[in-house]
Amino acid sequence: MNSPSRLLVPFMIVFGCTFIIILAGWKFLSTYGIDNYVLLGANTLFFLVCILVFFIQKKGMKNPNPNVFIRSIMGGMMIKMFFCIVAVLAYTLLIGEGFNKKAVFISLFFYLIYLTVEVKVLMKLNKQHHA
Question: How many CB atoms lie within 10 A of CB 30?
Fold first, then answer.
C-alpha cells in the first residue's frame, strides 16, 4: 500500500460516499432547509485539503527526525483550520442573510470523517515504517 494512488483510495471512497449521500438526499435535505450546494462545496474542499495535508504528513513521516513529523501534523492542522475559516468567512460574506447554519454544521461533521480517515491511513503507514 505504498503507491500514492492506493493511499488515496480511502479518501476517494469517503468523497464518493458523501457525494452520493448528498445527491440521494437532495430533496430530503432541502425540505429541512439545508443548502445542498454548501455541502457539495465543503465535501470537495475537505477532500482536496485532506489530500494536500496527507502528502505533507507523509513526507514528514519519511524524515528520520520525529520532530519533522510532529511539525507536519501541526502544520496540517493549521492549513485545515485556515481553509475552514476562510471558507466560512467567504460563505458568510457572499451569502449574507441567507447563511445556512445547518449546512455549515453538517460540513464540519464531514471534516471529522475526513480527519478520521486521514489518521487511520497515517497510522497504517506508521506501522509499515520504522515507528
Answer: 11
Average pLDDT, the chain: 90
Residue 9 C-alpha cell reads as: 483510495
**Residue 37: which residues within 8 A CB-CB, separation 6 or more?**
none
Confidence band, pLDDT 50/70/90 cuts, at residue 124: confident
Q: Rounded to two decimals, what is the model's pTM? A: 0.87
The Cα–Cα gap between 45 and 19 comes to 12
Mean per-residue pLDDT, 36-62: 93
What lies within 8 Å, CB to CB, of 87 at 6+ separation is 41, 42, 45
Task: Evaluate whether 119 touches 50 at the Cβ level (below 8 Å).
Answer: no
Q: Are 1 and 22 in contact (CB under 8 A)?
A: no
Q: Are 11 and 114 in contact (CB under 8 A)?
A: yes
